[in-house]
Amino acid sequence: MTDLSGKVGFITGGGTGIGLACAKKIVEGGGKVAIGGRRTEVVEAAASELGDSAFAVQCDVTNQESVDAAVAAAVDRFGGLHIAVNAAGIGGAGHILNSTAEQFAAVLDTNLTGVFRSMHAEAQPMREGGGGSIVNISSIAAALTHRQMSSYCAAKAGLNMLTQCAADDMGEFGIRVNAVMPGLTKTDLAQPLTSNEAVVEEYKRRMPISRLGEPGDVAGMVAFLLSEEASWITGQCIGVDGGHTIRQGPDLVEPLFSKFLPQ
Q1: How many CB atoms are closer than 10 A to CB 228?
Q2: Is 203 a catalytic residue?
Q3: Which of 73, 89, 104, 113 has the most beta carbons within 10 angstroms of its beta carbon?
Q4: Hey, what domains does the chain have and what are their CATH numbers?
Q5: Strands (DSSP E) along 18-92, which ranges?
């Protein structure tokens, strides 16, 4: 078990999937956590599951005031902020010829700019407290093309560079910033992929460790990066993917996205 005793954490997208698994790791490690998300009933259920060491806070990463208020609530409740996980995200699919700039921008607003908003809010109390650790949830789609998922891939690639720039900016304040790049993981967000047998086989044949990820697989790496055991690690984007990124990206057109092909 990773030691996070005495740490106060904040998680965006913390009500389900990887975010919830990270919240559980923080509490198991002896920390306290504010679980943020847009759906109040979902984050309240997650916090209730984790007991007195967790509480729910409404947070919409597309709105800076919402993020600021959520972080302030965490600080007020627990007396500071030491660690954060930015897991909020949405999917996005569409061919370049068939999708719109507005659809493209909407994915970036949550998956890239939303993380900027979150770090902007999280870093201030960390700086005031003498440092901290932030982990952003990226994707193998940052490094491998996924046909007809250009908005998602572009957002995650941008997130990797944002992570590195933030690490460079904030190292002088004792704030470390890293990212993890999960492969296909069994989450609510990935359900359209994980429920399709042909898609699953397309992913698995490209993985040396040929299975889908569990949220706990990713959360284990996140907990390590949040902890003092990783005190000399910053600006890194680490694959947690069964080795997928040493091969090549999946081709999802035939099993899933043929409807987007231009006519």
Answers
A1: 10
A2: no
A3: 89
A4: 8-255 (3.40.50.720)
A5: 32-37, 54-58, 83-86
- The set of long-range contacts for 55-64, using a CB threshold of 8 Å and a minimum separation of 24, is 56/15, 59/12, 59/88, 61/12, 61/13, 61/86, 61/88, 61/110, 61/114, 61/115, 61/117, 61/118, 62/109, 62/110, 62/113, 62/114, 62/117, 63/117, 64/117, 64/120, 64/121
238: amino acid identity, one letter: I
Which residues are registered as beta bridge partners of 238? 180
CA 24 distance to own-chain centroid: 15
Whole-angstrom Cα distance, residue 82 to residue 10?
A: 9
CB contact set of 94 (below 8 Å; sequence gap of 6+) = 103, 148, 150, 151, 260
Element (H, E) at 19: helix 17-28
In the chain (263 residues long), the average pLDDT of successive 10-residue segments reads: 96 98 99 98 97 97 99 98 98 92 98 99 99 99 94 98 99 99 95 93 94 98 99 99 91 72 71
Cβ–Cβ < 8 Å for 125, 81: yes
Is residue 228 a contact partner of residue 29, using CB atoms and an 8 Å limit?
A: no
User: Among 69, 17, 72, which residue's Cα sits nearest to residue 184?
Assistant: 17
Catalytic residue, candidates 78, 116, 152, 203? 152
Chain centre distance of CA 228: 20
The secondary structure of residue 180, as a DSSP letter, is E
Beta-strand runs (E) in 13-109: 32-37, 54-58, 83-86
Whole-angstrom distance, CA of residue 241 vs CA of residue 218? 9
pTM > 0.90: yes or no: yes
